[in-house]
Amino acid sequence: GALAVARSVRSSVEHLLRLQDTEGFWVGELEADGSLESDAILLDYYLGSPQPERVRKLANCIREEQTTEGGWALYPGGPPNINLIIKAYFALRLAGLKESDPVLRKAQELALELGGVEATNSFTRIYLCLFGQYDWKAVPAIPPEIVLLPPFAHLNIYEISCWSRAILVPLSIIYAFQPRRTPPHGVSLRRLFLKDKHRHGRGFAPLSDLRLSWKSFFEVSDQVLRTMEQTRFTPLRKMALKSAKEWLLEHLEGSDGLGAIYPAMMNSI
What we know:
Elements: H1 2-19, H2 35-47, H3 52-64, H4 82-94, H5 102-113, H6 122-129, H7 162-177, H8 214-230, H9 237-252, H10 261-267
Helix pairs in contact: 2-3, 2-4, 4-5, 7-9
């Protein structure tokens, strides 16, 4: 009853006080799922100057976090996550593991069981576009013009969470340029696709097949935006990129990066 709750609260408070540093703060190890290590390897290779020792340590962390069934989970004891599996597989290939390595063989089998690259989310597919493993035409349109929408508009960046804005604005800049870096020879995700569709743009659904709903509204909007992108009809692009750049610089000033996750993680390695 109430007495048991009060006793639990008091015990928890006492435990937290024992963990407090003499200067008044608490220290804890930064932990997250294995996607951070995979993202770090992908970023280092994309920037073109991976440090072998750091990549080796990151790859070791990824291998240690692999489950007995061959995948990676979002949390200890959780189910395998296809996005983590795809990124971990590619990161380990970049780190030097061969496709025949038992770690990657198990990951490949599980990835295909879960639907392969086709089953990943949009963020993962954009990561893959950066390395030529997926087609930019087949990912949702994220034009930087979204930052030009005024606060009173029904759809604008301040109608979404702070964390989402920190992803959306830089992602829109990347989408505008659609960069690509060729991975080392022989490194690819060819074995993790159920069908060879990744080099072809996703087909547009006939408008007659779309039912009246918010889902269909966003699907139609995405089709229109991607069509404009492919035809290069982007008259406000220069202004939008300038605004997105200014927004980023303003929010990066005096910080350790958007979210400060990557710097904190790398400092712990």
